[in-house]
Amino acid sequence: MVLEQNSFDCIVVLNSELNIFSEILIPINKILEINKEIIIIAADGAYNKLFELNISPNYVIGDLDSVEPNYLISSEINHLNTKFIKLEEQETNDFEKCLKYIYDNKYRNVLVIGLDGGLLEHTLNNWSVFTKFSAKLNLIAYSSERYAFNITVKNIVDKNIDDENINSELNINLSENEIVSLIPINKCKLSTKNLKWELNSEYLELGVREGARNITNSKEISIKIEEGSLLFFCNERLPFCYNLNNF
To answer: What is the CATH number of domain 2-243?
Structure first.
């Protein structure tokens, strides 16, 4: 299976301690250049940063406890085209609330900005939510000009075949000498081709052996996952996304 590029149909911005210009404004502007109708969703207090950048998101979702009151008043006075959706339940965080809304409204190719900013526990929790929803959505996390997305056996086998033990090979178009990382989600058995340090039906496991900072030997690499799943990191391809799940 070849991992093809596609266009984003939604951007979700999380409330994190990021440089608002390099980490928020630049990636959003790159996408707006080809799709001015892109749906932008702010997770609660992320609205404050978008407001400061003169970006009006389509939706602000969360319990809204972090939205700056003066910004909210200004939004109402200036009739900005932003809908505030208040969800007070505390069983899920604001990121998960956003992803549920995205899934229910049939957006599928989603750029996530701000996943890794803020407190460590928030970051780890966001990665957990990201992994959970990667089975339903084409989620691409963006940070520091890098992409991250989930790869699992279920992503790359024929969806009409109900057999989790089927091995399948995923080909990814990249650049030669590009730094990539393969971080297991707990534990993953895989083989690779066209990487400087190859894996041959070997395990990566958190706390035992990780796959950070490998280097491509070609413009196309392949990853064959036999068990489990991993997070794959590569350079960003803005304004495009990888279409992993073909939803």
So the answer is: 3.40.50.10240
